[in-house]
Amino acid sequence: MQAIVIKEYGGPEQLVLKEMPTPDPKDGEVVIKVRAFGINRAETEMRKGTWFEIDPVSGIECVGQIEYDSSGKLARGQTVAAIMGGMGRTRHGSYAEFTCVHSDFVFPIQTNLDWATLAAIPESYATGWVALSGNVHIRAGQVIFVRGGTSALGQAAINIARQEGLTVLTSTRSESKAALLTEIGATQILIENGKLSEVVREQYPDGIDGVFDLVGDTTMLDSLRMVRKGGYVCMAGFLGGHSPLSFEWVHLPFGVNLNAFASFAFGTRDFPTSDIPMQLIVDRVADGTYKASPAQVFSFEQIGDAHRLMESNGANGKIVIVR
């Protein structure tokens, strides 16, 4: 089969096409013929060699069709989505003609969506759904802040929260992107400067119910200052880069809950993939409830260009590769 491999750690030019053996599945595993996959920021870190687990074939999600299921439960040709399960980290990932993953991380899907649209869904919406429900503990009528709203995960979170009946505040680094965020349901858009808690507290003196922070270390303390006693801040991204924090615990807001989430937790006891209603999510995209069209679509051979766009922060949504 054809696969895209990391020749050596470095820039997008290190992603090269190579012939590799087709996966040989073990008990409990399925082989998927990859039709399309989304690009994720974690994959750019893997390519550079800065991630803690890296396989030469990257890619942590895909959509496609069953080629072989060792259990016989899924028929050949069945449309599926797959996320995580070690793909791109401890086993060959989705940057390939075929990929192999344990069936626990594979979701059979019934849909008429095209491959590009379907590929914009799995990782972002699974992460957004689980983190908002289980970490931010959202409920109808609440007010939350999605920090980093123009990212694919940010847009998914806005869609999900609005459909669940929340008021959603969000941020972007560019005023030109405000219209996009309003279109998908954000109530108010603030321009990100790392110091937005004062603006939020002026409008909500008692604090808001939660923050879903995708910017990361540089905004964590400011996000905590936005939230009421008993509210939640979930750290789930690093759009602002990595920078170790140093602070005195007495300077933290008292009574505010801080936690984190990353999709590599899927499949653990605390975050089973059964918590992800993938068919419901896909149906909501199909009927227009969630606005989840890919921002940019590239061919398999244009993988380097896709990574360059990701690192430029110019995509304004999900970047998708279609084979």
Query: What's the overall geometry?
Result: globular
Q: What gyration radius follows from the Cα positions, in whole Å? A: 19 Å
Unreliable spans are none
Q: Summarize the main sheet.
A: 7 strands, mixed
The ordered string of helix (H) and strand (E) elements is: EEEHEEEEHHEHEHEHEHEEHEHE
The CATH homologous superfamily of the largest domain is named Medium-chain alcohol dehydrogenases, catalytic domain
According to CATH, what is the class of the largest domain?
A: Alpha Beta
Give the termini distance in whole angstroms: 13 Å
What is the averaged pLDDT score? 95
The overall number of domains is 2
Helical proportion, percent range: 10-25%
CATH architecture of the largest domain: Alpha-Beta Complex
Beta strands, count = 15
Q: Look at the helices and sheets and give the structural class.
A: alpha/beta
SS summary, helix count? 9
Q: Per CATH, what is the topology of the largest domain?
A: Quinone Oxidoreductase, Chain A, domain 1
Beta strand %: 25-35%
Structural notes for this entry:
- The structure is a single chain.
- This protein is of the alpha/beta class and 323 residues long.
- The protein folds into 2 domains: 2-123 and 265-322, Quinone Oxidoreductase, Chain A, domain 1; 136-260, Alpha-Beta Complex (Quinone Oxidoreductase, Chain A, domain 1).
- The protein is built from 9 helices and 15 strands.
- The strands form 3 sheets. Strands 3, 4, 5, 6, 7, 14 and 15 form a 7-stranded mixed beta sheet that branches. A 6-stranded parallel beta sheet has the order 10-9-8-11-12-13. The protein has a two-stranded antiparallel ribbon with strand order 1-2.
- Helix 3 (122-134) packs across helix 4 (152-163) and helix 6 runs parallel beside helix 7 (220-226).
- The two termini are 13 Å apart.
